[in-house]
Amino acid sequence: GQQLNQSPQSMFIQEGEDVSMNCTSSSIFNTWLWYKQDPGEGPVLLIALYKAGELTSNGRLTAQFGITRKDSFLNISASIPSDVGIYFCAGDTGNQFYFGTGTSLTVIP
Amino acid sequence: DAGITQSPRHKVTETGTPVTLRCHQTENHRYMYWYRQDPGHGLRLIHYSYGVKDTDKGEVSDGYSVSRSKTEDFLLTLESATSSQTSVYFCAISGRTGGESYNEQFFGPGTRLTVL
Description:
heterodimer, A: 109 residues, mainly beta, five-stranded antiparallel β-sheet, 11 strands, B: 116 residues, seven-stranded mixed β-sheet, four-stranded antiparallel β-sheet, 0% helix
């Protein structure tokens, strides 16, 4: 199946630092979604992007829909301990959703 | 949250036994999905439904069947469970009519299945 290339696979950062992660694909997507998953729980939708070039914020999170419609990035500013978890992207072609393999974030107090 | 529940949340079963997982939504979303999540593979689509009694196969459908007799319920059945089907199973929904979130997909809490 189609895969989204998500990087980095893992990050270890100090509390207060900013974080950036991205996803790329060989295919064009209509929608980009970013999720956070905590251990033992289902993924929670953080941000949804609908238009090429769109920049959307949700608190300390900011995500952008790439101009080519083949990529997206997520930034987290001023990280805090509760940001720990796995973040992953998803793209929607209109027929199906495809998911990245995730970025594991560890925040060191 | 989008009003999705899954049952059971945990199940241990033996190889060869049938297993049915249930997903229930209260949000009247059109589409429902079953995924499995395994280390190193991320989320993989098993089956999905685009309406009552309308279903289609996903990437890893072998050994699984689904049914959707009502908008709110989507069942995943393992006809004869195997150890390779040990996984965490997530239900998801999308396609909320009349809202801005039509293309957004929301996940249930997951079912952890162990096949011995």
